[in-house]
Amino acid sequence: MAKLNAAVTLMGVNQSTGGDGKVYSRAQLYFKADKTMLEVGVDKKQPELLTRIMPLEMVEGNAVIHVREWEGQRFLDLVGFDLVKK
Fold first, then answer.
1. Residue 47, phi then psi, degrees to nearest 5
2. Residue 50: is it exposed, middle or buried by C-beta count within 10 angstroms (0-12/13-18/19+)?
3. CA-CA distance, 70 to 32, in Å (whole number)?
4. Residue 3 CB partners (closer than 8 Å, separation 6+)
5. Gap between the Cα atoms of 21 and 49, Å rounded
6. Most exposed among 24, 48, 82, 83, judged by the fewest C-beta atoms under 10 Å?
7. b/e string for 67-79 if b means 16 or more Cβ within 10 A?
8. Is 65 exposed, middle or buried (0-12, 13-18, 19+ CB in 10 A)?
9. Distance CA 66, CA 69 (A)
10. Rounded distance, CA 14 to CA 28, Å?
11. Quick check: pTM over 0.85?
């Protein structure tokens, strides 16, 4: 598993219910350096992270993203987010 740190703008967080009945949370991240967006999962093992970032929209911060692989597929999970102090 790899860990990435990046300066991003958190655009927002949404939740949806999967076919298995579980609730999945996704965060939309904007990378200013190359003007791209990426949707990543929010780590379920850290409910306090979801509670902290759920109300945030359009805020700059430093994201910690884990890259993991399961059954041949790669997944990106947001495991940390710290606001940039201005």
1. -60, -25
2. middle
3. 29
4. 64, 65, 66, 67, 79
5. 22
6. 48
7. eeeeeeeeebbbb
8. buried
9. 10
10. 8
11. yes
59 contact partners, CB below 8 Å, separation of at least 6:
9, 10, 83
Tell me which amino acid residue 7 is.
A
Q: Is residue 37 a contact partner of residue 26, using CB atoms and an 8 Å limit?
A: no
Give the tens place of pLDDT for each residue, 16-71. 999 999 999 999 999 999 999 999 999 989 999 999 999 999 999 999 999 999 89
Domains and CATH numbers, the chain: 2-16+23-83 (2.40.50.140)
